[in-house]
Amino acid sequence: MKKTTFYLTTFIFCSLLALFSFSCSTLSNLFSASPEISLQDVDIKSIDFEGITFSCDYAISNPYPVAIDLQEVVANIIYEENTLTKINTDNGVSIAAQGEKANKLSFKVPYDSVIEFAKSVAGKKSLPFKVSGSASLDLSNVTSLKNAGSLTLPFTKKFDVPVFKPNFSVSNVQVQLPTLEKLRNSLINSGMGLTKAVSVASSIMSSSGLPANTFDGIDLDIDLLFDLNVANEGDALWELAINSCQIQTSAGSIADAGSADGSSTTINSSGTIPMKASLNTLQAGAFIVQMLNKSGSNPVFTFDSGLTFENLPYKKALPLAYSYEIPLSQITRK
Predict the structure, then answer these.
(1) CA angle, corner 200, sides to 199 and 206, nearest 5?
(2) What are the pLDDT digits (tens) for 71-106?
(3) What distance in Å separates the CA atoms of residue 61 and residue 145, rounded to the nearest whole number?
């Protein structure tokens, strides 16, 4: 009986010892790995007339069986020794046990800074920047670690910034009236008597004091011509594809605009695009009178475009909208 008890006691002791050793080994394996941070490539998120907004997806993995806290992510945007922007984000975010926290770093690089940096390297189409920072983790919940406390995960990612600053302007705005004969015939076709049609047509061609109802009931297209000037203050190679263009007033859109000669409105780097908007007197008669009288609210030219950079890793078309209020005083007759 004593022998049996001895063997049983020995078996239980060995089993408990093996279980303890296995548990220690398993526990050690669970806490042997460390949290890590991974960054994707930096990409352009958006552009406007102040600068280029970049973004970078990142993820922090938590290998532990308990949640940990991401205290903060801090980073500097650097060109050579110049710190351009400081980022501080994600304070107090929790990362689930054996989980991953994904987020995005976003930051803007102003055009003026890029152009200023590029002055010392004339002809450069892009400049090498980097985002350099760290993620701070609170590991106080991970009590099984010998030195539970905080952990800093450094990161660095390089990216190219185009030497680029877009500049648009509108010039040579002109109203192109039809010939006196065509104008007279349009008035007659609209039901106006010959004598009155001749008088009204002459008044439109020569006078600036037209009544607001001058074009009531008249179906006639009158062209608004202007030049859209596109320029880049830097040396980056880029292509601009102009999409929808409109002439708007306080009442809303009154006409679409497009290339005056029907050619493409895609332009490489810099140049001038002759534009035309046909204003129909049935829809925009009152505004046409305002233009001819040079009195009233100013029209606004707007367009949406897609911009792409050549020889850089940013391949998607970036939307860029532009608007310009055209002073009535600057509109001449052609």
Answers:
(1) 90
(2) 999 999 999 989 988 888 877 789 999 999 999 999
(3) 17
Span 212-234, average pLDDT: 92
**What number is the average pLDDT over the span 176-188?**
90
At 11-46, the pLDDT tens digits run 454 444 444 444 444 444 445 688 999 999 999 999
- What's the token pair of residue 155? 């990161």
pLDDT one-digit tens code per residue, 258-283: 999 888 888 887 899 999 999 999 99
**Can you name the residues that pair with 230 across neighbouring β-strands?**
168, 271
Asked whether the beta carbons of 320 and 47 are under 8 A apart, the reply is: yes
What's residue 90's pLDDT? 75
Per-residue CA distances from 39 to 3, 30, 81, 153, 261 (Å): 64, 24, 22, 12, 48
Residue appearing with tokens 């990142």: 58
Task: Read off the DSSP letter of residue 220.
Answer: -
Do residues 173 and 331 make contact, with C-beta atoms less than 8 angstroms apart? Answer: yes
Q: How far is CA 295 from the centre of its chain?
A: 36
> What does the DSSP 8-state code read for residue 296?
S
C-alpha–C-alpha distance, residues 333 and 174, integer Å: 5
Alpha-carbon distance 317 to 111, whole Å? 19
Bridge partners for 74 per DSSP: 88, 134
CB-CB contact of 120 with 66 (8 Å): no
CA 96 from chain center: how many Å? 33
Alpha helices, H only, 94-236? 111-118, 180-189, 194-206
Nearest to 247 by CA among 332, 173, 333, 329: 173
Distance set, CA 26 to CA 20, 61, 264, 281 (Å)? 10, 20, 68, 83
Tokens of 209: 């004091």
Mean pLDDT comparison of 183-187, 204-208, 298-302, highest-scoring range: 298-302
Q: Contact at 8 Å (CB) between 214 and 285?
A: yes
Q: Name the token pair of 245.
A: 């263009």
